[in-house]
Amino acid sequence: MKTTPPRPIDYRPVTGEHMAVRLCSLRKVHGRGAGAVTALDGIDHDFPAGTFTAVMGPSGSGKSTLMHCAAGLERPTAGTVVLGSRDLGTMSERQLTLLRRDHVGFVFQDFHLIPALSVAANVELPLRLAGRRPDAHRLDDLLSRVGLHDRRRHRPGQLSGGQRQRVALARALITRPEVVFADEPTGALDRASGREVLALLRAAVDDLGATVVMVTHDPQAAAWADEVLLLADGRLVDQLTGPDTTTAETIAARLAALGA
Ligand code: ADP
Ligand code: MG
What we know:
Structural class: alpha/beta
CATH superfamily: P-loop containing nucleotide triphosphate hydrolases
Number of domains: 1
Bound molecules: adenosine-5'-diphosphate, magnesium ion
Largest sheet: 6 strands, mixed
Shape: globular
């Protein structure tokens, strides 16, 4: 397994390539009247399919709101979210629920596995919920990729934190989602386990063509991404792209300049 961020591609956006998620003039105001809080204040950004993006910024800058709106968990106040070819603003709550189940993968800081189910059953769950026949080959392949094939019959309680997060990653990938959203996926892990999870996110993009959007406060985690977005006060204030700028040192310096 790779333990340092590989730099295979100097990623440059190319007009006309497929976008996994498009955000256009995205605004989100929580509450109303005197207590209203503007969490997102006009965000425009495209996430190209097959890329790894890190979202950073000070606490309260809108990272979680951005992810929730992009994933169809929250409705924006204004602006549009297009996921794959679907405009989320045109969809009912029921349609959004199905979209999240079938076309979006989620990885959370605290894993969100089902304790009573085996590793294999946790990974298969999104397919079973969708009434789709679990593909044994896909399941075997993903369990092997995350290094847990020999643990497939274990329960989450028998696994370390890093192993649990690798189960969560396999579960997020099983449906071949348009995009995987990861909210502080290494936040509850020690450095070594965190690096394994980051290497697997990177490999999901490079080897499986997955699209990953990861919220993190850790510049070393963000350095695994192709592009780093910096938010402040609900606005996109900086974008770092390319091997020379998406280094932990540069990212940390830009963050510090925001007062993070
Ligand atoms: P981050 O994830 O970067 O810490 P958030 O997206 O959680 O930021 O929050 C952005 C802003 O919106 C903050 O000022 C926060 O207090 C506010 N906010 C977030 N969720 C709500 C909510 N449900 N109700 C009211 N204000 C909220
Ligand atoms: Mg947050």
